[in-house]
Write a structure and sequence with these properties.
Number of domains: 1
CATH topology: Rossmann fold
Mean pLDDT: 92
Number of strands: 12
Largest sheet: 7 strands, mixed
Strand order of the largest sheet: 3-2-1-6-9-11-12
Low-confidence stretches: none
CATH superfamily: NagB/RpiA/CoA transferase-like
CATH class: Alpha Beta
Radius of gyration: 16 Å
Strand content: 15-25%
Helix content: 10-25%
């Protein structure tokens, strides 16, 4: 994979590569990533955990929810906030009703008082298209996570919530272009290992 592609070309190439995986390859990769997440201390300690439902070939971590519920943890899914291109997080339970957002991604239907803001979470597992050793991330291009977690850039020591990516191992690149508004991840889980940001 060339490190010199511009961001749109890189995004297109990575998305094509993960969509090309067979159903079996995708399930195996997801299972390996899930196993790493379940054993990680940040997951073990967290009480309020944001996840995502897979889209466009992303690693599927939805099977994390039954285990989290059995451990009395609370799970949330991102919801597009209106107005503005920001995310809030709605609780996800076994009884949650889902509706498709404008991108065709399911979101839990929740009342205003059930919604949690990004600052109110312990652990946020984020999808991504590509990442590097420093924790830089390329997403789908909407900038939702960067805007929603911009407050983390202003913190020098205490970082809460913990922002960790989830991806296929082939999505890891040597270095990515960095913008002033990017919010770096603290690490990324893949189907091979956990990469703490350096």
């Amino acid at each position: 994979m060339s490190q010199h592609l511009n961001t749109p070309a890189l995004r297109k190439q990575m998305r094509s590569q993960r969509r090309a995986l067979s159903a079996r390859e995708h399930r195996q990769a997801s299972d390996r990533a899930l196993d790493l997440i379940l054993r990680h201390p940040l997951f073990m300690r967290a009480q309020h955990i944001a996840l995502f439902l897979p889209n466009d070939g992303e690693i599927d971590i939805s099977e994390l929810m039954p285990t989290a519920w059995s451990m009395h943890k609370r799970c949330y899914l991102p919801v597009l906030a209106s107005p503005g291109q920001r995310l809030v997080f709605a609780p996800m339970t076994q009884d949650s009703r889902l509706e498709l957002n404008r991108y065709g991604i399911p979101e839990p239907v929740a009342s205003r008082h059930q919604i949690r803001q990004p600052r109110q979470l312990d652990l946020v597992l984020t999808p991504l298209v590509a990442f590097d050793a420093a924790g830089n991330r390329i997403g789908m291009g909407g900038g939702y996570y960067d805007r929603s977690f911009a407050f983390l850039r202003r913190r020098r020591h205490w970082r809460h919530p913990h922002l960790l990516g989830v991806a296929h191992d082939f999505q890891r690149l040597e270095a990515l272009p960095q913008q002033a508004w990017d919010v770096p991840l603290q690490g990324v889980f893949t189907d091979r290992k956990f990469y703490p940001a350096t």
